[in-house]
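Exercise 7. Predict the joint structure of the components listed below.
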Amino acid sequence: MNFLLSPAPHIRDNKSVTIIMCVVMLALLPATLGGVYFFGWSAAILVLLSVISAVATELVMNKMMKREVSIMDGSAALTGLLLALCVSPSLPYYQVVFGAIFAIIIGKQLFGGLGFNVFNPALVGRAFLAAAFPVHMTTWANAFAYRGLDAVTQATPLAAMKFSGQGTSYLALFYGNVGGCIGETSVLLLLLGGLYLLYKGIIDWRIPISYLGTVAVLSFVFKADPIFHLLAGGLLLGAFFMATDYVTSPITAKGMWIFGIGAGILVVIIRLFSGLPEGVMYSILFMNAFVPLINRYTRPRILGRKK
Amino acid sequence: MKILKMIVVLTLIGLISGGVLAYVYQWAELKIAANQVRETDAAVFKVVPGTKSYKTIAKDDLTYFECFDDVDGKLGTAILCQGNGYQGVIKLIVGVNADFSKFTGMSVLEQLETPGLGAKISEAVFQAQFNNLAARPPIEYVKGISPSKPNEIQAITGATISSRSVVNIINKTIEEWLRVK
Amino acid sequence: MKKGLMFELLKGLWDESPTFRQLLGMCPTLAVTTSIINGFSMGVATLFVLLCSSVIVSLLRSAIPKEIRIAAYVVIIAAFVTVADLFLKANFADISKALGPFVPLIVVNCIILGRAEAFASKHGVIPSFVDALGMGLGFTLALTLIGSIRELLGSGMLGQPWVIMILPSGAFITLGLLIALMNVIKDKTKAKLAPACPLACPGCEQGGVN
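Solution:
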């Protein structure tokens, strides 16, 4: 499918915000269920708590700010779901509630609600949690630890690579039985959801492709294993479900390329040259800040006007 | 005439300010010096317990304090160490006993590590690990498990880089001290 | 219209609060308010410099030619800042260490030069003293408030310590939310006290949107 941006008149699509949000949540379902399978019921409780607190906060804020109630558009629920998918499965429950409240209030409502927020609200919530509770956010339950089969905590594949030089098998990364955030470990399940979104035309292919491509090429250039860096960490979750957020990503085709490539460069820089093992969250948040600028400079020329 | 007035006024203001400052400085100087001595005293007494008096020695960018007590003579040495941490310079002081067989203590003097993570190097739990730590071979750190060897400390969870920095700073400074002393 | 001394004192606490209304002195506001004691001592140090320099500037206001007034103010302010810095170093070494370079940096705090230029150079000693006292107290109050919120949350008032509150981002979040809260209160009380004047002349406090 080829999307062309043009001035009015527009062909009206029958995709409403609610339908889009529901399709995205449906696409996240495999990864969510996978997270519960790998990390146990505590993961399911975290997801539920996060969604409920996000929706409840949205409702309270709507009432307090005397705005139209917007919880039925599903965006708050999606924010809650995405936030839960990118936190550690062993996070204390109340912390995810704080994260969801922060995401909705500071990340979304104070900017003016859906459509006005500069930063991806779920990632704002996650950034808050990472800064507020760094120890809990970097303590990772091992996959299947809840069944009492294995060691309880474990480094994520990226942390193991960065701090101890240990690799993780591609197969384990693909399947997902490794340490990590609830919804980021299984490449298989994330691909399933991502491809479904592409197939339904909900997201544009340019951002994921340029994002993932840049990470692969750059990690190859810097003599790191490109396949490992594609499969490990939250890259796929970020590329398909967070970098493609309508509100916080560019609207022009050229802008999407710039956004994806910029985020990809940041991920590789953070992963390979900084003190942090993973950089997907900061790469997307950082590029979010540039979106208004990108949109402005990649705006298509109006016919007949000088450039 | 106007120019003259400007010059006179500004000069007068400068002179009076300077005079006031000179007076205040004279008063503050002694107290500030006393504060610094007290700080050094506290640090040295903490890392080499039992010290009654010490001698400050500065050699090749290295500052260390030979510590003595009233009875047995030399107790050990307190060495100032400095190096890069995760976010900024870490300054610390470490004590070794007289025959250089073990560390007697460690105290972080200045650090800019992340609050809640790396900043835990300033906490007593982390610093206590250096009491009675074997001085040779150089210190090593382990993660997530209890130390098994006499020269091992346990890194702070989630702050491996800050813990490693402390270990590296101490090891490097000790090597230098062995060379110059 | 001549306004009373009480007005000059109180405006610094609320209507023209240097921190929440004029957004002056942001550098220490954001940098040193990691704890109550840091915020409070920074506020008091600033209050001291503000009081002394305002009084001196007001006393000398007719003696200083206007072409060199800024240079003269800066010398006066710098002298008092150095006095404050030496005093802290001598008597409160720990606080001085925690505040670091931000005590010497009071020299460039806009509140102080701002009050000297906007108020003390045009008013008598007593109003200038009261104005400086109000502004300084407003600044101290604001820094202490931010410091207490950050220290309480950062040290674990709500469950685990919120490390973010003692990081720079916590300062921005706290300041932003406090300004928002202040705006809400101001809007509410204004709507209650004075119904908007129907004439709504531009520049008038009573009319229209302020």
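Discussion. The two ends of chain C are 20 Å apart (CA to CA).
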